[in-house]
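Worked example

This section walks through a single chain of length 139. The input is the sequence exactly as stored; nothing has been trimmed or padded.
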Amino acid sequence: MDRDIVQAKLESLRRCVERIADKTPSSADRLAHDPDLQDIIALNLQRAVQLCVDLAAHVIADTSSKAPSTMADNFAILQEANVITPALAERMMKAVGFRNIAVHSYQTIDWNIVYQICTRHLNDFRQFAKAIAQQLAKH
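Given that input, the structure is written out below as tokens.
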């Protein structure tokens, strides 16, 4: 595992989460009516999810685990390897679903859901970063 790459990605993830926390408005309604906040938050959420996928892939590449076939599989594999908990794996897989909607416009983004992510689920990213940092310390 390349320590410098992992640490750089962890720092980028920290900055994305911090940016989301700093820009989250006081209500879902405000978010739904502010295109600038929508852009900042959606972009940083997309980046945060992608960084988590990249970090997961980096850890998996350093193990004898099977290669993931989807982005969400990265988190299932980390769960099987006892790097993250089943609950965190499930939440991270849901984050990939959000990323896919945001990036590929599979559906119209529901800003109420985005607001819930911002106000209730940023710790998922922090917990994931902590688990990866612990894995890095083992190597």
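What to look for: The helical segments are 3-23, 28-32, 35-61, 73-80, 86-104, 111-120, 122-138.
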